[in-house]
Give the backbone structure.
Amino acid sequence: MPARRITAVCASVATLTGAWPLAAPVHAAEPTPGSTAAATPVLLADTDHDGEVNAGPAGGDAAGEAVFLPNLDDSERRCRVADADLDAPGGAADARLAACDDAADARVNGEPDAADLARLRLPAMPGLGDAATGLLSVDAPDKVRIFARRDGDRLPSGFRPALPEGDGLLTAAELRAGLEFGVEGRDVVRDASRWDGRVTITLTVTDHGRRSVARVRMREAPLLLQNDLQPAVEVLAGKPGTGPGSPPALPFPDGLPGGWQEFARDLRGATHAAGVRSPRFVAGTSQWWKDTWWQDIFEPTTATMPMPGGVRTMRVLVRSGNVLDLGEASAPTPRPMARLLFRDLRGPGVAVVQQLTLTRRDRLTDLRNSTGNVESLPPYAGHPQGRLLYGTGRTRRPDPAFVRLLTGMGQGLQPPVVLDTGWLLVGHVDETMHVVRARNARGWTLMIADPRMAARLLRRAEAAGAGGTRLFPGSPTVAGLLGDRALMAANDRAAGHIDAQLDTMLAATGLGRSEIVRVPVLFSASEAEPSLLKAYTPGIPNGLSLTAREFAAPAPYGPVVGGHDLFRRAARSALAAQGVHVRWVADLSWAHLLGGEVHCATNALRDTRSTARWWAYSARSTALLTMPFGG
């Protein structure tokens, strides 16, 4: 490399001012006064995010910052889950399961693990003396590990741990030959007030008493929520197991959950029609299989970094913050069903993270820590990565530590919108709204549960002579529902609360009221807690988007007039106007009568390529982005 080019590269890489201009440049060399300057080290990094290790001009909001991944997957499937771990009381098993990942050891676990390392290069420094030394250091030593291997070595086994295990020491022979470094994140951002995901790596070279320094700034890839317009690539759901299915401390009503055959039949049909592979049905343990709420045990995110020829993606499943109180004889226990994530999903390219507070709390409060209460909005003007959405209340709130993880992991790229869900029995944001494709400028809108529409359709059915029909087995007749003053008053209260939620969403998104898709859902007071409300008829918005145009909705069991379910007809018409086709799924016994719906009983991993290049957009951009969502 010509001397002039080396000088230019050194100034670019060693200074790396990025998004925060420095008052004065950081000098690459710091010679002893009166001496000749030592040879200047150069740390090359992918600061322009083209996937190549170089010192080209950086761009985007992360200008001047190379990107590294939180290396928390299990590339060689070496992390084991014993059967006893799945039902163990207390949190010891959970801590042990979460502690096993690729970053937990000081070795590169094969080629897939090597591909998860962000690369830096130190060009050869042939003029150094035999006594020269190099020292790597980082300002957040507990957050990253740095491996080193001779420049040109392409074997994963060539990497040795340099920091922290090697104390950052580099020999004269290594410096003269040149080195390639691999950087892995050892954790995610759990509290943005303590760490924002950024690190500065410093290389100090000392030769004949003279010292020279190179620095590079790096940023860990944020954990970004997928959104419901992105097509599903894998759908997950539960299935019946053997044994009682629940412990004595948490009994289930007789016969519930039931109707799995009908649920599974319809869900398979919906995925087939959408061109998505058949769902993966997973049974829990004999003690816990009745906990079928796959949406409530984890929220899928992705972390991505540039790589040669494209993007390296790691799925990071954020475990729910649920901790169960199983009685005084047992310690507070993280939700056992969520341990299936470690057994069935963690592996190459898939990580699991958790942030749990092992304290006793009442069941209704703990429901707020389920990830059915965590959703996302797709990109829109001013928010090119979309936004986090979660619910809370005045008296029952999610665990603050869990909220710190949710709001910190995205590093400010998906700022939260917070809804009041304190009036709901379960208290989840997915109970009342769902993002759907729309024929508007931004490409999406909100589908909202409309209790007033449900009441109007009941009255229409009664007027058409269907007042004596029942919505589903065990329900009153249409006339009986309309004559139930307490139920109708509860339905009106739900409408008022949803109005307030909608006001919040309109203010946060800029959507207009005329753009909202409304579908009928009848609400009632909870028998267990009359001050709290629940969906009396299956909540249509609480379904699963399979693609932007295919929506698996809970069959609503609305009033039937002339052979047509009025709730189905209204919802199908409203969504068809936006180019969305509805696939009905019977979930009455499998989910609805236990307080959930299709969405609660499923989860989906999605194709996130449309939002993978987060570094290409500014979090503060106000330009309206057009993002591809598969039609």
About this structure: Residues 1-37, 56-63, 618-631 have pLDDT under 50 and may be disordered.
